[in-house]
Amino acid sequence: MNIAIDQLSKATKSQAEAQIHTMSAIAEKAMHAVAELAELNAATMKASLEDSSAIAQEILAAKDPQSAFVIVQSQAQPTAEKAASYARHLAAIATKAQAEFGKVAQERMAETTAHFHALVNDLSKTAPAGTEPFVDLFKSNIANANAMYEQFAKAGQTAYDHFQSQLGEMSSHFGVPAKPAKPKKAAAAA
Fold first, then answer.
1. What is the predicted pLDDT for the residue at 172?
2. Cα separations in angstroms, 174 against 72, 75, 170, 178
3. pTM beyond 0.70
4. pLDDT per residue as tens digits for the range 128-144
5. 188 touches 95 (CB < 8 A)
6. Chain centroid offset of residue 19 CA
7. In angstroms, rounded to a whole number, what is the distance separating the alpha carbons of residues 14 and 69?
8. 172 Cβ partners below 8 Å, 6+ apart?
9. How far is 96 from 178, CA to CA, in rounded Å?
10. Who contacts 77 (Cβ-Cβ below 8 Å, separation ≥6)?
11. What pLDDT, in 10s, does the model give residues 61-118?
12. What is the rounded CA–CA span in Å between residue 69 and residue 178?
C-alpha cells in the first residue's frame, strides 16, 4: 500500500505544479488582453476627442443654424462606422483572448487526462486481486467523463461560432461590412 500512497503523493505534487503553471499562463494571457483593451480604449478616446474638437470648430464656424445642423447630420454615418470599427476591434481582442484561453485549457486537459490515466493504470497494477471489475468500472467512468467534456467543448465552440455570426450580422445593420471571421480549426481529440 506504500507504493500507492507514494504514487498519489507524486501525482498530487505534479498536478499542483501544473495548476500553478496553468494559472500563470492564464494570468499572462489575461493581462495581455487587458493591455490590448486599454490601448484600444485610449486610441479610441484620443480619436474621439480630436474628432469632437474638429466638429465643434466646424459648427462654431457655421454661418447659420441650418449649416450647423447639416454638419451635425453629416457626422451620423462616420460615427456609426467608427462605432462598428470599435466593436470589431473589441471582438477581435475577445476572440484572440478566448482562443488563447481555450488553447491553455485544452493543453491542460490533455496533460491532466494523460497523467490521470497513467496514475490509474499504475494503481490498477497494484490493486488487490479480485478488484479488477471495480477498476474496469472506474476506468469506464473516466472514459465517459472525458467524452462528456469533449461534447461540452464542442457545444461551447458552436455557441462561440454563433456569437461570431451574430456579431457580423449586427455590424451589417450599421451599414458597415463585417470582416469575415477566420474559420476555427476543429478541436483535436485528446
1. 65
2. 18, 14, 7, 10
3. no
4. 778 778 878 877 887 78
5. no
6. 19
7. 68
8. 178
9. 17
10. 175
11. 989 989 888 988 998 888 888 888 898 898 888 888 888 888 887 888 788 778 777 7
12. 30
